[in-house]
C-alpha cells in the first residue's frame, strides 16, 4: 500500500512539472549515454593512462636536449693530506679547507636514431591509449543501450502483469457471484483463485526485474540508487522503417572506419614495427659530447713568488678550467643481446599483424551475426504479434462460452494463460528488435537515439 501511494505521488508530481530532490522527470536514451560518458569512472581511469603516455612522450622529446647540472663542494681535513689544488703534501696538525664548483653538460649526438624512433613510438602509443578511451566509451554506450531497453522491457512486462491481474480479479469476482447462486462449482472458483495468484506472482517477478534493470542503469550513470526517473520509449514504427534495408558490405565498411578496436589494432602493429627500428639502433655506434666548467679553492694555496696565502676570490678566478669530451662507443659483441632483441621485435610485429587480421575477422563475424539477429528479431516480432492477436481472440471466444456455461474453467484459464504468455513474448520481441537495430548503429558509429 505504501509503495502504491508513493508511486501515485511521484506520478502526480511529474504531471504537475514539480521537481523532487534527486529526481529526473524523464531520461532519454541519448541523455543516459551522455550522463554515463561524463561520469563513469572507467573512462576516467583510461584517461589517466592517456595522460601518463603524454608525459612519456614529453620525456622522450626532452631526451634530445643536452642535460645541464651544477655542483659545489666544501671539505675539511685535519693532518696529513695531499692538496690537489696547491699540488703539495700537507703535514702537521693543521686544518685544510677545500672548495670547488663545476657546471657540466652532455648530449648524445648519435645513437642509431633510437631516441627519434622512441619519440615516434610514444606518439603511436598515445594514439593507442586514445583509442582505448574510445573503446571503453563504445562499450559503455552499448551497456547503456542494453540496460535501458531491458528496463523498458521489464517496465512494460510489469504494466502488462498489472492489467492481467486486474482481468483475473474481475473474473474471480464474477465467478464468486456465480458460485453463490449455484452456477459455478468449487473447482471453477479454485481455478479462478489460482489464476489470480499466478498473475500476482508475475507482478512481483516483473517488478523485481524492472527495479534491478533500473539499478544497473543508475550504476552505469553513477547515480544514487534513490534517484527516481522515467524512461522514454522508442517509436517502434520508426525503428522498423530505419533498418528496413541493411546490407552487410555497407555496415562492415563503416564499422572498419569507426570501430576503435580496428583502429587500435592498426596502431599496435605500427608500434611493433617502430620497436624493430629501436632495437636495430643498438647495432650502431654511439657518439656523445660532454663539456664541463669548474674552479676550486684550497686554504693551503700560496703564491709561488711571494709565498703569500691566496684568498678565496683570487683562487676561484685563477683555478678556472674547461673541458670538452667527444666519446665514441662501438658495439662489437654483447652476447647477442641486440640480435635477440631485434628478432623478438620482429616476432612481436608478426603477432600484431596477426592480431589485426583477427580483429577484422571478428568484426566481420560480429557484423554478419548482428544483421542476422536484426532480421530474425523483425520476423519474430511480427510472429509474436500474430500469436498475441490470435490468442486474444481465442481467449475472448472461450470466455464468452465460459460465461454461458459452454466451456469449463480449465479451458477458460488455459486460454487466459496462453494470452498472457503471448503478450509477454510480444513485448520481449518488440524491444529485442529495437536493441538489435541499435547494435547496428553502434557498429557503424551512428548516434544512439530514438
UniProtKB/TrEMBL annotation:
<dbReference type="InterPro" id="IPR051906">
    <property type="entry name" value="TolC-like"/>
</dbReference>
<dbReference type="Pfam" id="PF02321">
    <property type="entry name" value="OEP"/>
</dbReference>
<dbReference type="GO" id="GO:0009279">
    <property type="term" value="C:cell outer membrane"/>
</dbReference>
<keyword id="KW-0732">Signal</keyword>
<keyword id="KW-0813">Transport</keyword>
<keyword id="KW-0998">Cell outer membrane</keyword>
<keyword id="KW-0472">Membrane</keyword>
<dbReference type="GO" id="GO:0015288">
    <property type="term" value="F:porin activity"/>
</dbReference>
<protein>
    <submittedName>
        <fullName>Outer membrane protein</fullName>
    </submittedName>
</protein>
<feature type="signal peptide">
    <location>
        <begin position="1"/>
        <end position="25"/>
    </location>
</feature>
<comment type="similarity">
    <text>Belongs to the outer membrane factor (OMF) (TC 1.B.17) family.</text>
</comment>
<dbReference type="InterPro" id="IPR003423">
    <property type="entry name" value="OMP_efflux"/>
</dbReference>
<keyword id="KW-1134">Transmembrane beta strand</keyword>
<dbReference type="GO" id="GO:0015562">
    <property type="term" value="F:efflux transmembrane transporter activity"/>
</dbReference>
<keyword id="KW-0812">Transmembrane</keyword>
<dbReference type="GO" id="GO:1990281">
    <property type="term" value="C:efflux pump complex"/>
</dbReference>
Amino acid at each position: 500500500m505504501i509503495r502504491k501511494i508513493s508511486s501515485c505521488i511521484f506520478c502526480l508530481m511529474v504531471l504537475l512539472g514539480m521537481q523532487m530532490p534527486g529526481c529526473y522527470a524523464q531520461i532519454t536514451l541519448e541523455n543516459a549515454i551522455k550522463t554515463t560518458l561524463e561520469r563513469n569512472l572507467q573512462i576516467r581511469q583510461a584517461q589517466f593512462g592517456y595522460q601518463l603516455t603524454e608525459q612519456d612522450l614529453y620525456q622522450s622529446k626532452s631526451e634530445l636536449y643536452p642535460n645541464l647540472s651544477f655542483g659545489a663542494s666544501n671539505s675539511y681535513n685535519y693532518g696529513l693530506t695531499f692538496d690537489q689544488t696547491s699540488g703539495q703534501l700537507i703535514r702537521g696538525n693543521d686544518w685544510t679547507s677545500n672548495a670547488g664548483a663545476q657546471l657540466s653538460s652532455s648530449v648524445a649526438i648519435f645513437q642509431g636514431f633510437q631516441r627519434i624512433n622512441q619519440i615516434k613510438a610514444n606518439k603511436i602509443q598515445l594514439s593507442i591509449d586514445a583509442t582505448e578511451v574510445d573503446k571503453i566509451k563504445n562499450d559503455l554506450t552499448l551497456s547503456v543501450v542494453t540496460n535501458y531497453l531491458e528496463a523498458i522491457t521489464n517496465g512494460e512486462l510489469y504494466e502488462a502483469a498489472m492489467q492481467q491481474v486486474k482481468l483475473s480479479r474481475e473474473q474471480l469476482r464474477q465467478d464468486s457471484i456465480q458460485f453463490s447462486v449455484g452456477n459455478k462449482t468449487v473447482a471453477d472458483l479454485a481455478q479462478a483463485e489460482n489464476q489470480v495468484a499466478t498473475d500476482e506472482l508475475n507482478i512481483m517477478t516483473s517488478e523485481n526485474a524492472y527495479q534491478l534493470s533500473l539499478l544497473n542503469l543508475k550504476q552505469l550513470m553513477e547515480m544514487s540508487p534513490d534517484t527516481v526517473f522515467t524512461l522514454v520509449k522508442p517509436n517502434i514504427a520508426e525503428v522498423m522503417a530505419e533498418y528496413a534495408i541493411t546490407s552487410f558490405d555497407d555496415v562492415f565498411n563503416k564499422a572498419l572506419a569507426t570501430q576503435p578496436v580496428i583502429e587500435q589494432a592498426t596502431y599496435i602493429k605500427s608500434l611493433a614495427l617502430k620497436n624493430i627500428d629501436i632495437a636495430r639502433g643498438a647495432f650502431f655506434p654511439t657518439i656523445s659530447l660532454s663539456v664541463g666548467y669548474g674552479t676550486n679553492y684550497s686554504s693551503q694555496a700560496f703564491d709561488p713568488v711571494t709565498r703569500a696565502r691566496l684568498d678565496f676570490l683570487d683562487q676561484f678566478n685563477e683555478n678556472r678550467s674547461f673541458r670538452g669530451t667527444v666519446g665514441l662507443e662501438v658495439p662489437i659483441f654483447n652476447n647477442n643481446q641486440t640480435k635477440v632483441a631485434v628478432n623478438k621485435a620482429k616476432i612481436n610485429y608478426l603477432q600484431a599483424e596477426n592480431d589485426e587480421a583477427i580483429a577484422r575477422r571478428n568484426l566481420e563475424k560480429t557484423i554478419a551475426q548482428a544483421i542476422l539477429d536484426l532480421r530474425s528479431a523483425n520476423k519474430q516480432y511480427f510472429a509474436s504479434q500474430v500469436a498475441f492477436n490470435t490468442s486474444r481472440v481465442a481467449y475472448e471466444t472461450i470466455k464468452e462460452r465460459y460465461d454461458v456455461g459452454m466451456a469449463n474453467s480449465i479451458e477458460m484459464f488455459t486460454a487466459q494463460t496462453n494470452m498472457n504468455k503471448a503478450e509477454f513474448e510480444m513485448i520481449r520481441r518488440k524491444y529485442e528488435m529495437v536493441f538489435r537495430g541499435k547494435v547496428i548503429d553502434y557498429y557503424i558509429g551512428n548516434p544512439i537515439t530514438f
